[in-house]
Specification:
mainly alpha, 97% helix, rod-shaped
Length: 187
């Protein structure tokens, strides 16, 4: 094909050179020169059309196919984008409801946590009160025992002092005799 194009171009250039030389030799200068130029142009256009027709047609056909494919792709992309936009708008419209649901759930969680903390505080308070009561009862028993023991010690000491002050040696001899007599009767 390249060989055909080169041959045709060479023929056009040769023929154009002959026509131009004849126009200059003839002397009719203006009109014939103009006709020669138009003929050169027509031949050039004809040769170019002949050799470039099939590549140009192939290029235009492939370009047309490419444009159609691009239009189909663009339509698909537009449909996808429209669907995505609709989905995003739907989510945007649902967002306030979701936020309100989250707020409600958060408030419920806060209330539940407050109730749990209050319940734990009551249970801890009851446990501490029970522990304190047991501790108080234990200390009270110990204090009562100590107080009873101390009171008994004091009573014995007071009784001993009274006995020491009120019993004379004669009273002691009499008590010993009476105890001995009781022992003999018991035998």
């Amino acid at each position: 094909m390249l060989l055909r194009f080169a041959t045709a171009l060479a023929l056009v250039l040769i023929f154009a050179g002959d026509v131009h030389a004849a126009a200059e030799a003839g002397g009719e200068g203006g009109l014939l020169s103009m006709a020669a130029k138009l003929l050169n142009f027509a031949i050039l256009v004809g040769v170019l059309a002949y050799f470039l027709k099939s590549p140009l047609e192939a290029y235009l056909a492939s370009r047309s196919t490419q444009i159609r494919q691009d239009l189909v792709t663009a339509a698909d992309m537009r449909a996808t984008a429209t669907a995505q936009l609709a989905e995003i708008e739907q989510k945007m419209h649902a967002l306030p409801g979701e936020l309100e649901a989250l707020r409600r759930r958060g408030a419920e969680d806060v209330q539940a946590e407050k109730a749990r903390i209050a319940q734990a505080a009551v249970a801890e308070r009851e446990r501490l009160l029970a522990h304190t009561r047991r501790e108080i009862d234990s200390r009270l028993r110990i204090a009562k025992r100590e107080l009873t023991a101390h009171a008994a010690d004091l009573a014995v000491a007071v009784a001993q002092r009274r006995i020491e002050q009120s019993i004379t040696p004669d009273d002691q001899l009499r008590l010993i005799d009476r105890y001995a007599a009781q022992l003999q009767e018991a035998r």
